[in-house]
Design goal:
Elements (H helix, E strand, L loop, with lengths): L6 E6 L1 H9 L19 H6 L2 E8 L7 H18 L4 E3 L3 H9 L3 E8 L8 H9 L2 E5 L23 H13 L2 E3 L5 H10 L5 E2 L16 H10 L2 E4 L3 H4 L1 H17 L6 H11 L8 H15 L4 E3 L19 H10 L4 H22 L2
Parallel strand pairs: 1-2, 2-4, 3-4, 4-5, 5-6, 7-8, 8-9
Helix pairs in contact: 5-6, 7-8, 10-11, 12-13
């Protein structure tokens, strides 16, 4: 069975995955056919009923970040130019609707990590001029003006420049993305923003207790902001059993003086820990989607799979062809077609249009 709902997905890391695979060489791997090394190619996007995709511009947090972000932006433009019958660049809600009407996948861009602007509002404005529609304020580490969810808090949210960044993003029509930021940064940004915000790829902290997920009070505030939390499929963000297993493996590794993330030592860690790794599943994702709907409301939930940004996926959601399975599972749980349409893309399209309207 194929879901009729066209997905607007908030976060796909194909640009960095393609760089790591072949340094952006579109001749090396033909994305119009099968590319099994990746979670994403054009046939699987079609099979997944993807109508629009935010391509993530993520690069390491170092002194080359701004240049490398521009290179990723260029890659997305080159990708769209290579496959004009399948992809169409989109920078507005109207563009998304036009691309879908033409039978193409609307291609949007979002920067992942505030360090990609190099503490420059001029770079931020230039990125917007070149088509970038959101920026995740941090990635895994703090930036000088905002605290990350997975770093030691320094500011307790945003500093004065961080507030300027949020206000300037509102002014130029760039969505404020609160995935990856600390809970206090989430709350601070929600107080400052004059436009709806997004979580491009986060889940619910009440269901899976990791700092990358959104707490219930933030989800409640998000409803008043008219924003959207795009639920991600990352095993560590959706399965508490998986999180607990990782914690146990880390504890074992530390006790043995081993590095869990070192491939040469991973087998030793697994042998010492002994417990089999649990598998995240579609059912885990369903719990998060339904929790966000329950707390924030049906108008404030979306999908941000994070494909090609993670080494593992839920066992029954292996790649971008998998979205219809989620909609079938929710339909079986008595979700209406109207509610499924909002989840699939209606909510993020509304937020994108609101950002267009607020911009001056």
């Amino acid at each position: 069975m194929t879901s009729p709902h066209l997905v607007i997905d908030g976060h796909n890391d194909l640009p960095i995955a393609f760089y790591e695979l072949c340094e952006y060489d579109l001749d090396a791997h033909d994305l119009s056919g099968s590319v099994p090394q990746l979670h994403t190619d054009l046939p699987r996007l079609r099979a997944g009923n993807v109508g629009a995709q935010f391509w993530s511009l993520w690069v390491p947090q170092d002194e080359h970040a701004v240049r490398r972000t521009f290179e990723q932006l260029d890659f997305v433009h080159q990708l769209v130019a290579r496959f004009p019958d399948a992809l169409q660049l989109a920078t507005t809600a109207d563009d998304v609707e036009a691309a879908i009407k033409a039978g193409r996948i609307a291609s949007l861009m979002g920067m992942e990590g505030g360090y990609s602007i190099g503490e420059s509002l001029g770079v931020l404005r230039t990125m917007r001029t070149l088509g970038v529609r959101y920026m995740t304020l941090t990635h895994n580490n703090n930036v000088p003006w905002a605290d990350s969810a997975t770093d030691k808090p320094v500011l307790g949210g945003l500093n004065d420049f961080g507030e300027q960044v949020v206000r300037e993003m509102n002014r130029i029509g760039m969505l404020v993305d609160l995935s990856h930021v600390s809970a206090d940064t989430m709350r601070h940004a929600l107080r400052v923003t004059s436009a709806p915000v997004i979580f491009s790829h986060s889940s619910a902290r009440a269901v899976c207790d990791v700092p990358r997920n959104a707490p219930d009070d933030v989800l409640e505030t998000l409803a008043g902001n008219d924003g959207v939390c795009m639920v991600t499929f990352v095993p560590y963000f959706v399965s508490q059993e998986y999180v607990d297993w990782v914690a146990g493996a880390l504890e074992t590794a530390e006790s043995l003086g081993l590095d869990k993330d070192d491939p040469s030592q991973r087998d030793q860690v697994m042998a010492a820990y002994e417990k089999p790794k649990p598998l995240a599943s579609l059912a885990d994702v369903v719990k998060h989607v339904e929790h966000v709907r329950e707390v924030a409301g049906i108008d404030h939930v979306g999908i941000g799979g994070d494909y090609d940004g993670v080494p593992e996926t839920p066992v029954d959601l292996p790649d971008v062809s998998s979205y219809p399975l989620l909609f079938e599972a929710l339909a079986e749980r008595k979700w209406s077609d109207q509610d499924l349409e909002k989840l699939a893309g209606g909510n993020i399209l509304r937020v994108l249009r609101a950002s267009d309207d607020v911009a001056v």
